[in-house]
Every structure is written in C-alpha cells, then in structure tokens.
Amino acid sequence: MKGIVFTEFFQLVETLFGTDMVDDIIDDCELETDGAYTAVGTYNHVELLHLVGALSKHSNIPVKDLVYKYGHHLFSRFSELMPHFFEEPQSAFEFLESVHDTIHVEVKKLYPEANLPSFKTTREDDKTLIMVYESQCPFADFAHGLMAGCIDFYKEDIEIDSEDQNTDEMYSRIFTLKKK
Amino acid sequence: MTIDNDAEHKIERMKKRLAREKNARQQAEILLEKKSQELYDININLHENIRLLEATVVNAKDAIMITDSDLVNGPNIIYVNHAFSKLSGYTAEEVIGKTPRIFQGNATDRNVLDDLKEKLSNGKSFQGELKNFSKDGAEYWLDINITPVKDDKGVVTHFTAIERNVTERKASEIELQRQIEKAETANVSKSEFLANMSHELRTPMNGIIGLSDLLMDTPLNAEQEQSIEAINKSSESLLILLNDILDFSKIEAGEMTLENIPFNLKAVIDDTTKLLKSQIEDKKIEFKYHYPSSLPAGLIGDSTRLQQIIINLIGNALKFTDKGEIALTLSRTEDNMMKIVVDDTGIGIPKDRLNDIFMKFTQADESTSRRFGGTGLGLSISQKLTELMGGAIGVHSIEGQGSSFWFKIPIIEADIDTTHTSTDTRHLTKVDFSNANIMVVDDHPINLMYMRKLLKKMGIDRVQMVDNGQEAFEYTQVGMYDAILMDCQMPGMDGFETTESIRKMHQGNALHTPIIAVTANAMKGDREKCIAAGMDDYLSKPVDPNALQQTLQKWVRYEELDLSSAESSIPTSSENIQNQDPVSVDTLTPVDLPALRELFGSDSEDERMLFDLFFTTSDEAVESLKGAIDSDDNQRWRKAAHKIKGSAANMRAEKLAFICAEAEGMYQATIQTKNSLLNSIQNEIAKIKKQLM
C-alpha cells in the first residue's frame, strides 16, 4: 500500500482526534515500520488494518465506519493533490470509469511495484454504473468511501448499492451506482 | 500521574515522534536516491535509443516526414529528414508547420489522395504511389507508406510517412505499358486488317470460282478446259487459305464464338469423311475409320467447328502421307471426353519441332511450305478451337514413320432423335414466345415478309411490320414492343439513326426496348457500330432461324416447352450464300419449294403474295441492273444485285442468290461480263417464274 494512504490517515486522525491519538494508536500496534511512513514509500497494508483497529478501540467507532469515512476524506485530498486527474472527467461516472484505465495506469508508471486493486466498470444505462472492486486487500469499504467522496466532489445525487462476492483468492464487491 | 511524570511522558512522545520523522525522512531519502539512479539509468537508455533512432531517421536514404494528426486543417509537418529535403528541394525550416499538400499539384491523382485520406481518417495505414512536385516544380513519383502513430489509449497522435522516389521505375513502367499497348494495337490492327482483307478477298474469289464453274459448262477446247480447271482449283485452295486466315484473325481478336447446339455426332463424322473421301482416294491411301458405340448419339456443341478440326487434321495427314494409311479413331476416355485420333504413315515430324507445331505460321521446317504448301495456320486454329471447346490437342510423331494427332473435348450429351442423319438437323429447345410483340423494320418487302414468317413459325403473331425508320420511330412513341428487329441500311432514316432517336426519346426513363440489328454486312466492326448506336444485339442476313430464336431468347421473355415436342424444330435457312459449295449450285431447282413451304407453311394466299412481291422487286432490280450498265454506275449495280440476292435467299431460290452474290462481288467488272451476268440472272428469274406460275 502506498505511503500516502498512511500519511493522509495520520493527518486525518490528528485533525479529528488530536496528535496524541496518533501516538496512542501507533503505541498500540506492533508495526514493522514503527509508524514511520513516507508518502512515496510502499508498505504492508496489514499495518493500516492494525492502525484502524486501534483507532476504533480508542474512539469507539466501528472499523467499517472509520474506513469509509477515511475513503471519503481521501478523495477530496486527491482532488487537491492530483488535480490533473480531474481535468477530463466531467461527472462522477466519468471519473470512476477513468480510475482503472487511466489513473491506475499512471500510478503503475510511477510505482511499478504498486499492488493496485482492479476497478472494472460497465454502464448499464445512462443512470446506472456497475463497478467491480477486486483486490488482495480487504478495503472494499475504503473504496466505497472513495466513491462517496467522488459523488460529493461532483455534487451529484447517486445511490450506491453493494454486494460482496469474496472468494478464497480475492476480495470482491460489486457496487451498483444509480443516479436519482 | 504527577506533573513531572506527565512532562516526562510528553518528552518521551516527542522523542518518539522525532525518531519517526527522522526514520521517515531517511526512508524518503533512500527512495529518492533510488529513484534518481533509476531516472539516470533510464535517461542513459533513452539517449542511446534516441541516438539510434535519430541516426536511422535523419540519415535514412528514404525520405521521412512526421506530421501531427490534424486531418481537418493539417496535417502539419513537424519533422522531415535530410533525404526528404533532398528529394523535395525544401529545407526542414521551410516545411515544418506546413501541410504536405504543398507537394501536390493538379497532376496528383485525386483518387489516390481520397483513398489516403479515408484510410488515415480511419486510423489505418496507407501504401500507394503518388505524384509529387519539388520546390522547383519538377514532378516525381513516390512510393509512400504512411503509418498512424497511436498513444497508449489508441488515439492517433501523429503520422509518419516513409517515401521512396520511384520516378525512374514509374517511367519505365509507363513506357512498358505504352509499348505493350502499342504492340497490342498493332496486333489488333493486324488481325483486323487480315480479317477485312480475307473477307474482301472472299467475295471476288467466289466470283472467280462461280464463273469458272459456269465456263466449264460451255464448249471449250482441251487447253481451255485445262486452264479453267487450274483456275478453279487454285481459286478453291486460295479460298481455303482465306477462310483459315479469317478464322485465325477472329480467334486472335477474341471474336470467335462457338455454338452450343445439339447435333448428331455420327452423322457429322460420316459427313466429314465423305467430304474427304475423294481426296483420300486420289492419293491411293488406305483410310480406316473407327466409331465406337460408347459415344453418345447426340452431342451439344459446335458441329461445324468440330468438323473443321477433323478436316484440318486429316487434311494435314493427307498432305504429308504418300503411301500407307490414314486412320480416324474415336473413343470415349475415362474422364468423359471424346478423343479423336488421326494417325498417318507419313513423313513425321522431327522431335525438336514437335513443341511448336501448333504455333501459328509454324511448319516443321522452312522447306515444308515450299514442298507441301499451306499457311501453317490449320493446326493453330485447331488448337484454339479445341481450347475454346474446353479440350486439348496434341501430337506424337516419329520422324520417317508417321504422326498421330489427337484432340479431346468434353462430352455434353444431347437427347436427340437419331433418325435424322443430316448434319443440318439441328434441334433447338422449343420455346413459347406467343406473348411477344415484335416490330420488324426493313425497307425491303420480301425481307419483311420473310421475317414475319420466321416469327410466325416461332409462334409470334403480334408482328408490327414497318418499312422505314421514321415510321418505326413514330410507332415506338405510342406502342410498346418486346423487341425491334432493325435493318441497318434503309433510305431516309437508317437503322442507326432510328435507334439513336428511340434511345434518345427514352433517355432518363427505365424503358429499354431491345433493338436487334439485322444487317447484310458481315464486316468486322459492324457489331461495334450497332452497339455504339444503342442496339443490343446483332443478326446477319440472311437470317438463320436458329440464330433468330437464340437471339430472341436472350432479349424476349419466353416459356420453355416440353422437350418431347421438340420434333418440329425450326429448319435451318441456307448457309451464307458465299460459303455455298459452288459445285452443288448447278443441281438446284430454281426454288426449293419444300424448304420454303416448311418455313412459310402452306398458306396459299400468303405464298402467292410472296411470289408476287418477289417478282415485282426482282423485276425492279433487273431494271436497275440494266440502268447501271447503261450509266456505268458500279454502285447501283452492286446495290441492285444485293437486293435480288437477299430476296432470292429468302425465297430459297439458291441458284439465283448465288449468281447475284457473284454479280454483287463483281460490281467493278467489265460491261461485257455484267451483261453476261445480267443474262444469267434474267434466265434464272424466268426459270423461277416458270416453276412458280
């Protein structure tokens, strides 16, 4: 997992719960990195799971909600940090459709070692987009939060339904996005 | 927790935070260093690749141009190499930012450009030849390969064009093509000349043969008789040569068409051997002939041409065989072909000449033609004919022992009545034209009547007879016809003009009435002339009923009738009078009434009308002939003779037709000869009158 996900996570925890919370959750976890992350590095995603778990314990907020919330937040950060990805897509659907074929292609160029999830999309009709999340990592809720962030970014009214299709090899969730 | 403890705890946390920050910074530095090294390596690689590509592109012998992909306003040139500048005369600075259209001119092929644009618009590559112009206006030919360059999303961003100067190759290609065309034109002209010449020569030759025949019937002394016989024989040989040349030039010009008509095979072969019998007997050579029962009685094909091949091969064998035998053997091969072999015990052919024996104007050696005569066309014609029939021809020979010529053609069986043994018995599929409405245009009343009878015989009752072009044109303005049979030579509006007027009138609407030219001309190019005037097909006079039916079947809707009723097939009209065997003419009765009645039926009123018409027109024409002699008007003579010839042929008055054909051919003869011809014509008409009245 890219370091930016860790650094942005700490930023958010610091903003919402204060600096001490960051120290608390790092102290709670056995981390190979000892909690030292740089945005350009690549780290084991399990560390993020530990950190979120610790935060849940400290804040009494379920892990699922935390991860979703973080995804939502990270999307708006992306729009600030990487504005070039937002030049072409004019709507939430268009942006989500560009993730797999454009954004992830560019990320791979920069970080060939990055292990990215797959985000295949199909337009069922003008109002419906099917997005299939597939990954080695259990971050479907995180993806869900990112999608919600995307919809809010484009100020659209879209409902997201999801259904897990996990297998032994793969975490998979089918998201159905319906414009109202 | 005490204040000290709290402070200590905070310090401890600060230390940890600092350690984390330091750790993260060190990680970032290591990563940065690693990335820098990677970038450095990539840069080195990139430079090396660019150096290679540049060296390739910049110094390539072929001209290379790169443009952007703006096909609407551009494309705009963004790069050209040295070779390009050298070829076009423009420096890179002069062309960058411009469109490649600056290299094109009026002489640049628009079709190629359209094709190019279409391919590039569809993201496809283009390959083609294009004429371009250099800075100083010189034109040059390019072989261009244009390839679209696509980005990783498949969007075309650029085009690269690799151009090779093919001006020299193109020039030699054009020159080669010009030479080929020149040679082809020369060859066609040669064929046309040969065909025209031999055709023109045949007419006077027929005159010579006919008249020498007539002379032989007059009292002659021995010397005269010998001379006349020599004239007659030589003329006949000459006529055979002329026919060969005519056939050959027809084949060369691709104008030889074969008939596909059922015929009685045995009868054709029997007739052929009969024709050659006297020649074989003259040479005291034994003739063997084997006809197997495995061959079908009826075949579909061109019996005349089949006969011609056999005559050629046996004639050839006769020419080169002085003793021994000639054998004609027919058989059916395993691949369902009919094989015909002519074996002789003649001089044979040297091994090294066997391969080109079928080439035109080729004989075994130069001395052959001196010793044995001939044009060397016979075998070549036979070869082409067998090829046209879908067959093959070949020869085995041992020099000094004899030759064996063979040919084989596919067997297409016909269901025919074998009780008819004459080669003239040609069966056509009986068809029903009874709904057809036909217009016949001819200024000659007998021809009109003849055509009406022929059409009636085919079951066509709705026949509009018109004797001039103007009236024909007027009829087509008000009526609809399934076909128009159009005479070409008519006073006033001739057939060509009439056709043009009709076509012009119907221009723009879907109505197209088939117009079939009916003409006494048999010259090469006539067909083209008729087609050019807007006619659809062509029949030559005298009109052969079979040919008429076949032609109508092409253009007029008909229903096929049950084959079993094909018994009452249409009889063949006389062959072209000029081809008639002169010897047989004398034995004819003035008018072959049975043949005439078979054609016209036995309607006595109609018959009377036909006779009256015939006598009126022939009397008029005889007056014209007299007038022509008096005024020494050769053309008038020719036309009048032609007129009687036509109606005589239609009347089945073959001897009269024959004499008139001679008279027509000899329009430049002396007054004395003409008087004698006129005399013969009048005599013959008198005989006809006697027979018919």
List the helices and strands and how they pair.
The complex is a heterodimer of chains A (180) and B (693).
Chain A: H1 3-17, H2 19-28, H3 45-59, H4 63-81, H5 92-110, E1 118-125, E2 128-135, H6 140-153, E3 158-164, E4 171-179
Antiparallel strand pairs in A: 1-2, 2-4, 3-4
Chain B: H1 3-58, E1 63-68, E2 77-80, H2 82-88, H3 92-95, H4 110-121, E3 126-133, E4 139-150, E5 156-165, H5 167-216, H6 222-252, E6 261-264, H7 265-282, E7 286-290, E8 298-301, H8 303-320, E9 325-332, E10 337-344, H9 366-372, H10 378-388, E11 392-398, E12 402-410, E13 431-432, E14 437-441, H11 445-457, E15 462-466, H12 469-478, E16 483-487, H13 495-505, E17 515-519, H14 526-532, E18 537-540, H15 545-555, E19 559-560, H16 582-585, H17 593-600, H18 604-631, H19 634-650, H20 654-665, H21 671-692
Parallel strand pairs in B: 7-9, 14-15, 14-16, 16-17, 17-18
Antiparallel strand pairs in B: 1-2, 1-5, 3-4, 4-5, 6-8, 9-10, 10-12, 11-12, 13-19
Helix pairs in contact in B: 5-6, 5-20, 6-10, 7-8, 8-10, 12-13, 18-19, 18-21, 19-20, 20-21
